[in-house]
Amino acid sequence: MNEILERLKQLNLDIDSIVPIKGGDINDAFRLESFDKKYFLKVNSANNFPHLFKKEARALEAIKKTKTFSVPKVVNVGEAGKDFQYLLLEWMETSTPTVVNWENLGKNLAKLHQNTSKQFGWSEDNYIAIVVQPNSLTDSWSEFYAKNRIMPMMKLLQNKQLINSKQIKSAENLCKQLNSIFPEEKPALLHGDFWNGNILANKKGEFSVIDPAIYYGHREMDLAIAKLFGGFDDVFFDAYHENSPLAPNFEERLPIAQLFPLLIHAYLFEGYYVKDVQTILKKF
C-alpha cells in the first residue's frame, strides 16, 4: 500500500486522509481526501488478476463515449511493486433517486444497447468481478453464450466439485437449444454486470454506472441481472420496454439469461447459488 501511495504522490493530489471503505468482497477500497476533493481507490493483486483495473478503465471509457451514462473519471491506473495494482477514480457523491431518475435509467440503458456491432464479444477478454470473462468474437449469440459464458463457468464449478458430470451434460444439452430460446438480435453493447450495486444515483439525481464487465451480447442479459438481484424500481423496466421493447416471452427466457450470473456467484460464494444453477439445469 505504501508503494501505491508513493506513486500517487507524483500526481500532486495533496492527500490529507485515507479512509478504508467496508463492504467490498472483491477489492480493498479507500476514500482519499484532499482539501477540496475526494477520490475512490481500489487495490488488488496484480499477480492473481492481471490487468484487472486497466481493463476496467478501458470499459469505463467505452461507456463514456456512448454518451448514455456518466461514469467516474479515471484519475490514474497502474501497478506498484511486485503484486499491487490500483485504480484511482473521482469520488461520486450519491443521492436518493426519484421516479424521473429511474425512468431515465431505463431510457439510458435502452440507448446504450442501441450501440451495436457485427459480432458478439469484445476486443479483449476482461473480468466480471474477479472471474476472467472470455470474449472471443462469434457471429451468433447462441455460440457466444455457450462457448464464452456457460461452459467455461461449468468447468470451473466442476473443478471445485460443486457440480457433477450429469449437470455438465445438462448444460451441453441447454447450449444446443440456445438458438431456439433467444430471439435473434444485433449484438448490443452491454454493461455486463448491471446489478443494483453497480448503479449510483449521483448528486444531480441521475444514475452513473460503475464496475462494467463490458461486451457486445444479447441485451436481455443486462435486464436479467437487474431482475435477479432486485433493487430496481418498476419504472426502470417500464421505461426500458417503452423505448426498446423486448421480444415476447422474455419472462420464460429469463432463467436461461440469469444462468451466467448465477454461475459466477456459485463460483465465488457457493451456497444456494449452486442450488439455483442445479434447478435451472434440471430441465435439460
Automatic annotation (TrEMBL):
SUPFAM superfamilies in UniProt: Protein kinase-like (PK-like)
Q: Sorted alphabetically, which Gene3D superfamilies does this protein's record hold?
A: 3.90.1200.10, Phosphorylase Kinase, domain 1
Name recorded for this polypeptide: Fructosamine kinase
Family the UniProt entry places it in: Belongs to the fructosamine kinase family.
Recorded hits in Pfam families, A to Z, give: Fructosamin_kin
InterPro entries linked to this entry: Fructo-/Ketosamine-3-kinase, Kinase-like_dom_sf
Lineage, opening ranks:
Bacteria, Pseudomonadati, Bacteroidota, Flavobacteriia, Flavobacteriales
Q: Which UniProt keywords apply?
A: Kinase, Transferase
Tell me the domain of life.
Bacteria
In which organism is this protein found? Empedobacter tilapiae
| One MF annotation (Gene Ontology) recorded for this entry | kinase activity
